[in-house]
Amino acid sequence: MQDRIPRMKELIAVLSRAARAYYQESREIMSNFEYDKLYDELLALEAETGVVLAGSPTQRVGYEVLSELPKEAHPSPMLSLDKTKDVAALQEWLGPQEGVLSWKLDGLTVVLTYEDGKLVKAVTRGNGEIGEVITPNARVFENIPLQIAFRGRLILRGEAVIRYSDFEKMNAEIEDVDAKYKNPRNLCSGSVRQLNSEVTAGRHVNCIIFALVQAEGGEFGESDTKVEEAASGLPGETRKSGGRLNPGNSVSRRFAWLKEQGFEVVEHKQVTAETLPETVAYFARAIMDYDIPSDGLVLTYEDIAYGESLGRTAKFPRNSIAFKWADETAETTLSYIEWSPSRTGLINPVAVFEPVELEGTTVSRASVHNISIMEGLELGAGDRITVYKANMIIPQIADNLTRSGVRDIPKICPVCGGETVIRRENDVKSLYCTNPDCQAKKIKSFTLFVSRDALNIDGLSEMTLEKFIGAGFIHEYADIFHLDRHRDAIVKMEGFGQKSYDNLVQAAERASHTTLVRVVYGLGVAGIGLANAKVLCRKFKFDFEKMRRASAEELQEADGIGEVLADGWCRYFASEKNNAVVDRLLAELDIEKAPESGEADAEDAMPFAGMTFVITGAVEHFANRKELQELIEAKGGRATGSVTAKTTYLINNDVNSTSTKNKKARELGIPILSEEDFLKLLDGAEGI
């Protein structure tokens, strides 16, 4: 079976690309005959192997939205592993036994349960005793089988991860620098624990299996036999059951069997005490290019029965041990602290030191993050420091050997010369620039202004904006529409030419024909995202003058606009300077008229104005819930994820369901509509 799985994965990738091109991009990359041929081949392989991989075009996995993640206790506590940084200690721990060395993956541990060949439950590790049930999300992980050949009860442990390559692609699509994701692990944790599985599906989550916990019944023989108890004899011994391979008492054989079932298992190598050093060295070299986040290795006894017989301590199992990379350190001299302003006003301290070699590369800089860390290290120019690479990647200061003390914290911003201030938040002291016109802050505001959901000016990347702002071409929003004033200088800039200049000018011209929602969002008023921009435009009948002169009380009448957002809006437009900037911008724009002119017409065009809908369950008359949500918003309504006292209607085709949302709606007296009911409501509203 194992040779079939790679072909199935290949077919899924080819068919998915073809379907995406056809349905989403209106182009064909293969004929219908060729597509059907490959589809039939995949269908036959799934029937032959009994395996259906996630993402298979033969399946359609519905998305599910939850109000909260249910909690569930693990049958036995999931313990952490003891650890070492010493290869010799690993050798001593392994002794005369054989072992299996694998990556220690840095994601979110999940427990998967299969029954009768189907994935029935997925639970996060949580605190080790109680986890969160994330079954709908696990079903949209990119690489786990939804159906397997084994028909008994199977429990596995794996690590949910997002690959670096996918992480970088997702970040590249986010134009607002401050909105970019910080690291793959945090993004993965948030993606796995989403309440809406459709969000999870777009995050490229994979699950790498690292342990087979239990396999009961089915082809293993007895109905309630744990795999740990099913094997006897020498390490790796196997026995037949129903003509199929029993994973038996060997970790590596279990991994091989799991691969046959369609799972992606962690990369691993069999070792002895003698071969451990060279195998650790292999992984140390491989981590430099490894696409999956990892923070070390795990060594497990190959002989499962032997490992289990050792029992456990109060904190650690004795059958496995973690190996953390021994950080290579170097001593050097701190030359100075460089202060690096961000687009939020935060000024980050960066240690610049005499270059040293670490993990095969030359390093001379390391982030210190904030003033509190500087004070903890008593860090001053000229100090002797030790530096290392965290997880062999990120340069960090390990210690300060001379500790001369923190000094020379700048009183002015190194970018704009504006006054700085030290603020304490959550007991952490950080330095901020107080100048609202700081160039570093400008870059953030312009990046948002030209982003896809705002003015959508193609070609004005953050790097280009930095160049133009630094050269004095752009001081405020209106300047973007007068780049022709700087044509000669732009075409001579590195990376530019006549064609690039022409494209930019044409993109700005296209962007000048826009909508009020895009403009309001693009201004970057604190807290006013795209959804709130739509709400405000509808509330004030697309009359921008009324909108910007509105009082806080009037603004709060709009659904979802609370005191904080209203105050932020009022403060923004209380500034004469901001109003002048906006006026000059508006003079450059051709803003589409509201759907209808006049108050009565606007009410007719927006029959759901002031109404809040919650959508749950599967839909039948729409392609998906997003399409239904867009219709509601187009008619003036608002779609949210949770039922509250402000909800007008709950839409659920299963009107009599006992789901959490239905129960909440009944408690609050909120009507529950089927899609048929909703369409009747829409027809009636539009017929008024």
What order do the helices and strands come in, and which of them pair?
Blueprint: H1 4-24, H2 32-49, E1 52-53, E2 71-73, E3 83-84, H3 87-94, E4 99-105, E5 108-115, E6 118-124, E7 130-132, H4 135-138, E8 145-147, E9 153-161, H5 164-172, H6 184-192, H7 197-201, E10 206-216, H8 227-230, E11 240-241, E12 244-245, H9 251-260, E13 268-271, H10 276-286, E14 294-301, H11 304-309, E15 320-323, E16 329-341, E17 346-358, E18 361-367, H12 371-377, E19 384-390, E20 394-400, E21 420-425, E22 428-433, H13 439-449, H14 462-470, H15 487-492, H16 498-511, E23 513-514, H17 516-522, H18 530-539, H19 544-549, H20 552-555, H21 563-574, H22 576-586, E24 590-591, H23 599-605, E25 612-615, H24 625-634, E26 638-640, E27 649-651, H25 660-668, E28 672-673, H26 675-686
Parallel strand pairs: 3-15, 23-24, 25-26, 25-27, 27-28
Antiparallel strand pairs: 1-8, 2-7, 4-13, 4-14, 5-6, 5-9, 9-10, 11-12, 14-15, 16-17, 16-19, 17-18, 17-22, 19-20, 21-22
Helix pairs in contact: 1-2, 13-14, 17-18
